[in-house]
Amino acid sequence: MDIKVENLTKLYGVQKAVDDISFVVKTGEILGFLGPNGAGKTTTMKAIATFLLPDNGSIYIGDNDAIKSPQEVKKHIGYLPENNPLYTEMPVIDYLRFVAALNNVPKQNIDERVLEMVKLCGLRGEKHKKIEELSKGYQQRVGLAQALIHDPDILILDEPTTGLDPNQIIEIRELIKKIGRSKTVILSSHILAEVEATCDRIMIINKGKIVANGTTAELRNRSQGNEILIVEIEGISDRDTVYTAVAELPNVEMVDFLENESAKLEIQSSDAKQTKKLIFDLCVKNNWYLSQLTPVETKLEDIFRELTLN
Ligand code: ATP
């Protein structure tokens, strides 16, 4: 089931927490939602999950209008809110039975459904414990299990791995990927590597506005017109000749020596594919020994900073 958000705006007093944003998430897609603190991620996710009424815009979950028919839309959405609120004094299994009933899972199916979730979320060994007795990672699994209990088509996960240790992060990430194969997922996170590893697409929001939306590769291309190459040429006697020859190549925007004694260069090019070929030809022509020609990938951290630091 697709999610379609159009011109969504939410005001708190005069502050626009979300400012006229539009986007689509397709069935089977995992969208990573990034942004600095206060950017508007939770507000957007709450609006999609029908826990908050926007001031303007529309949200469609499949063909259902989330603003006009929130009860219908809720049936299709599993929501894991930030900070994972749970009834911690309840045993896991009782809590999941309770949430299943709340979500209108037919009575005769509740036990079977709860056991399926216990299995899927790796809670078998913990199912009779009170939630307050579980580690944070296992509590997070209970949060995921409650979000999935009614087999929703859409999962909205607000910072699902906050506070987990690296092993738990990997386990929850794998679980989300597994679930994401058949559902539409939006997850927010401050861990950029996690979003990169888990999500098909990344959307960055800043001050209530979408500032980027695409695959990691697309964001890299869009954020930086120039690509960077590291080139090392050995066995040359005159570094300046190499510098000048490289700097004169078409599309080369900047050249810099990286080390004092070798001809190791950092090159910024507006057409790295062509520059790589021309550097190779240049070395062949001059009998220079090309020992390195490596493109440097822009890190997602750099793209995030570039787009959100203002
Ligand atoms: P974080 O990464 O810190 O969780 P976020 O991107 O999820 O941030 P939101 O929680 O959506 O950001 O908040 C967006 C803006 O709206 C913030 O400036 C926040 O202070 C404001 N805001 C959110 N909820 C309320 C509220 N109930 N009342 C007033 N202002 C609010």
**Cofactors and ligands present?**
adenosine-5'-triphosphate
What is the fold named in CATH at topology level of the largest domain? Rossmann fold
| Strand order in space, largest sheet | 6-7-8-3-9-10
Roughly how much helix do the residues carry, as a percent range? 25-40%
Poorly predicted ranges? none
The CATH architecture of the largest domain can be named as 3-Layer(aba) Sandwich
Whole-angstrom Rg: 25 Å
> What is the string of helix and strand elements?
EEEHEEHEHHHEHEHEEHEHEEHEH
Number of DSSP helical runs: 11
Number of domains: 2
Mean pLDDT: 89
Portion of residues in beta strands equals 25-35%
Alpha-beta content class = alpha/beta
Oligomer: single chain
Number of strands: 14
Task: State the CATH class of the largest domain.
Answer: Alpha Beta
Gap from first CA to last CA: 35 Å
Main sheet, how many strands, which sense, barrel? 6 strands, mixed
User: So, the CATH homologous superfamily of the largest domain?
Assistant: P-loop containing nucleotide triphosphate hydrolases
- Overall geometry comes to elongated
